[in-house]
C-alpha cells in the first residue's frame, strides 16, 4: 500500500473517530448527570401526583408491558418492563413505614409463569407481614398473568372497557418441518434422550410429547385456578367455568365477580382513602430513574443505528427460541 492510500485510510479513520466523539458529546450534553450519578443507589424515585394534607401516604406502582424477566446484562435492555426493578419497588413499598397503602396500576397482557408467580407471592408477603391494603387499578388490558398478579389484591377496580380474564396457560412454538422439506433443508440432531428436542420446530410433534406438555400446562392451570380461589374467595368450579381462556370486559368481569368495581385510577385512590381512613393522603408514584447503563445503551444506539436494531432482533430471537409456558393473552 503506497503513502497516498495510507494517508487516505488515516483520514477516514480520523473522521470516523471524530464522528463518534461528536455523537458521544451530544449524548453527554443532553444528560442530567446529577440525576444519573446521584441516584445510582436508587433504581427508582418517587413522583408526587397528589400532595395531600393528612400525613397519610399511598404509593402507586405501574406494571406496564409483558411480564418477562429479560435480564439486565444487555445494553439493549434499557427500556420497557424491568422485572427485577418492579419486584424491588414492591419490596420497598412494603417495607417503607411511611407508605399506608399500595395501588398497582396493571396494564399488561400477562407474561411468564415464573415472573407472574414472583409478583403474586410478593404481594401476598406484603399483605401477611404488614397491614397495608393493596388495591389494583386495571388499565386497558390486565389479562392472564395480569389477572394472576391482581387476584390477591384487597380490591380490584377496572374500567368498563378493560380487557381482563384470559385465565389459562399457553405454550406455543413454530413448526417449519414441511417448509424445510419443500426447500430441501435437512436437520441433524444428536440428543441424549428421545424427548430432548421436544417441541422442536424441525419435525412433527408425537402423541407422547403432546401428552407430556399437556400435563405440564394442566398443572400450571390448576395453580392459576387456586390463586383465584384463594385471592377472590370463589368456588373452584366457578373459576374453572370462567377460566376457559376467554377475555372479559370490565363490566363482564364485575358481573362474574372477578373484580370489585368499575372506575379509574383516581376512583381507586378515593376508594382506598375511604375504605381505610386515609383521607386526603399524599399519593406518590414510583418511577424508574435514568441511570448510566441507559446512557450507554442510548449512546450505543446513536453510534450504530440499524446495526444495533439488528442485534436487538437477534437477541430477541435467541431469547424466544425455546418454548415456554406463559400466562399470556395472545391475539
UniProtKB/TrEMBL annotation:
InterPro entries attached here?
ClpP/crotonase-like_dom_sf, Pept_S49_SppA, Peptidase_S49, S49_SppA_C
* All copies of domain Peptidase S49, residue ranges: 129-278
Protein keywords: Hydrolase, Protease, Serine protease
Q: Does the keyword Cytoplasm apply?
A: no
One Pfam family linked to the record = Peptidase_S49
Q: Does the keyword Transport apply?
A: no
Name the source's superkingdom.
Answer: Bacteria
Family according to the record: Belongs to the peptidase S49 family.
This protein is called Signal peptide peptidase SppA
Amino acid at each position: 500500500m503506497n503513502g497516498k492510500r495510507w494517508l487516505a485510510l488515516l483520514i477516514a479513520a480520523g473522521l470516523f473517530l471524530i464522528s463518534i466523539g461528536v455523537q458521544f458529546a451530544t449524548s453527554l450534553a443532553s444528560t442530567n448527570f446529577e440525576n444519573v450519578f446521584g441516584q445510582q443507589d436508587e433504581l427508582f424515585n418517587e413522583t408526587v401526583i397528589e400532595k395531600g394534607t393528612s400525613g397519610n401516604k399511598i404509593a402507586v406502582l405501574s406494571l406496564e408491558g409483558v411480564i418477562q424477566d429479560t435480564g439486565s446484562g444487555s445494553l439493549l435492555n434499557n427500556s420497557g418492563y424491568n422485572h427485577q426493578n418492579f419486584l424491588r419497588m414492591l419490596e420497598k413499598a412494603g417495607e417503607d413505614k411511611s407508605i399506608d397503602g399500595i395501588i398497582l396500576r396493571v396494564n399488561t397482557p400477562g407474561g411468564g409463569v415464573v415472573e407472574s408467580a414472583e409478583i403474586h407471592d410478593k404481594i401476598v408477603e406484603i399483605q401477611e407481614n404488614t397491614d397495608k391494603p393493596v388495591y389494583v387499578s386495571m388499565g386497558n388490558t390486565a389479562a392472564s398473568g395480569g389477572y394472576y398478579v391482581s387476584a390477591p389484591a384487597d380490591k380490584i377496580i377496572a374500567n368498563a372497557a378493560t380487557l381482563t380474564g384470559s385465565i389459562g396457560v399457553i405454550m406455543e412454538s413454530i413448526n417449519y418441518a414441511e417448509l424445510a422439506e419443500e426447500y430441501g433443508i435437512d436437520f441433524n440432531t444428536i440428543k441424549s434422550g428421545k424427548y430432548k428436542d421436544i417441541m422442536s420446530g424441525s419435525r412433527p410433534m408425537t402423541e407422547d410429547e403432546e401428552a407430556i406438555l399437556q400435563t405440564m400446562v394442566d398443572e400450571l392451570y390448576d395453580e392459576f385456578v387456586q390463586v383465584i380461589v384463594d385471592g377472590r374467595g370463589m368456588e373452584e368450579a366457578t373459576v374453572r367455568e370462567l377460566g376457559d381462556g376467554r377475555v372479559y370486559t370490565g363490566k363482564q368481569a364485575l358481573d362474574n365477580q372477578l373484580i370489585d368495581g368499575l372506575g379509574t385510577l383516581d376512583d381507586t385512590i378515593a376508594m382506598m382513602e375511604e375504605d381505610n381512613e386515609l383521607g386526603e393522603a399524599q399519593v406518590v408514584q414510583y418511577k424508574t430513574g435514568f441511570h448510566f447503563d441507559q446512557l450507554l445503551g442510548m449512546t450505543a444506539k446513536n453510534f450504530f443505528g440499524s446495526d444495533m436494531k439488528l442485534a436487538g432482533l437477534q437477541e430477541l430471537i435467541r431469547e424466544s427460541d425455546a418454548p415456554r409456558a406463559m400466562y399470556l393473552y395472545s391475539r
